[in-house]
Amino acid sequence: MDSVKKGREIIIYRYLERAALAFLMAIYPLLKTKSTSIGRNGILKFSTHDFGILCYGGITNLNLVYGGSGHELCHDTPGREKLPSDEKRGPGFKSGSYRAFAGPVDMEWNTRDGTHLTHTIDLDEVFKDRVVLHTADSARIYKAEPISVGEPTIVIEVNDRTVSVYMEVSLQLVRADPTDTGRDRSHHFTRAYSKTL
To answer: Are both 101 and 18 inside the same structural domain?
Structure first.
């Protein structure tokens, strides 16, 4: 009798598991499109974001805290020199998703000459209006699903004594030919803040 009861419980559990997965898959597109919105003026805004970090210029021991998550970079090896090819390249890893915004970004690190620096960035100040930074023609942004991959990524870069904040985003654009229903992808890596300490 106990094995029959246990078998029923397993069947019910698996059914509930599948139902929950089906529900999440059904609402995922709705959740995804609500993270960005296009206003009447054509401006694209975001409510959630991904997060990434870059370190360059010989820095060591970068410790950064955002949204209650700690990150350590360039501890064993100093940050390499920033190359021209790095100007529009975000990090290969991301740590998100965060609601805009999950508090200040607190960081500390050692510069190339060994000076210990600390800095705090208030993302509410940097992105006051929650506008997605890009240079695409706003009229061409695909309104049904403007972001082609993930969500906007806020990137913190520390390069020796300079701290910069970038927004990285890939947009979907409608084609110029109205009979062509395909989409173009437009990648943007835009600086929003920079300070040398």
So the answer is: no
User: Does residue 40 sit in the same domain as residue 88?
Assistant: yes
What residues make up the domain containing 160? 36-196
Query: What is the phi/psi pair of residue 142, to 5°?
Result: -70, 105
What's the rounded Cα separation, in Å, for the pair 133 and 53?
18
To the nearest 10°, report the CA torsion of 108, 112, 114, 117.
-30
**104-117 in b/e burial notation, b at 16+ Cβ within 10 A?**
ebebebbbbeeeeb
Give 167's strand partners: 154, 190
pTM score, whole prediction: 0.78
Encode pLDDT of 146-190 as tens digits.
988 889 999 999 999 999 999 999 999 999 888 888 898 999 999
